[in-house]
Amino acid sequence: MSGTALVVRTRRPGALLIGAEAGASPVWTRALAAGRPVTVEVRPTRADGLAGNMEPDSITFDLVRALVDRVVSVDEGAIGSAMRDLLAKEGTVAEGAAATAVAALLQPYSRLELAGRRIGVILSGRNVDRPAADVIPREGPSS
Questions:
Q1: Residue 21: beta bridge partners?
Q2: Exposure class string for 86-110: b at 16+ Cβ within 10 A, else e
Q3: Coil, helix or strand for 57?
Q4: SS3 at position 122
Q5: For the segment 83-126, what is each residue's pLDDT rounded down to a tens digit?
Q6: Which domains does the chain have, with CATH numbers?
Q7: pLDDT value for 18
Q8: Which of 27, 28, 52, 102 could form a disulfide with 71, with the two C-beta atoms 3.0–4.6 Å apart?
Q9: Nearest Cα to 31, choosing from 6, 74, 3, 64?
Q10: Which residues contact 24 (CB under 8 A, 6 or more apart)?
Q11: Rg for the chain, CA atoms, rounded
């Protein structure tokens, strides 16, 4: 999130920048609320690339706090739906961590208030493991 924020702020300083995290690992929302890195319980998630805690002295926290306008948590159902929709509608295989940003847009209760805005979503990651792949419909007969 910090690297993306640096690039966005360089190219589009006035952009509204919203980060997304897996609700099963709410490290950003909890740390930002506390004003410092905190340890959170990490539950299993399709977005395994986002799961885990940050180092207490990480520079990432200060970068995100300074550059990101808001962070939203995304539930597992929304992540799975985003993975399916990306494949079905765009032909794009995206791992859970990548699909989390799309899931934030699809969650009706996130209230991102983006009407009338041009929206960009960065998808990075196609490494889908077996548990995460269970949300993606398979073609042909099952074996």
A1: 73
A2: bbeeeeebbbbbbbbbbbbbebeeb
A3: coil
A4: coil
A5: 999 989 998 889 999 999 999 988 775 577 788 888 888 888 77
A6: 2-133 (3.40.50.1100)
A7: 93
A8: 28
A9: 64
A10: 42, 43, 44, 45, 47, 51, 76
A11: 16
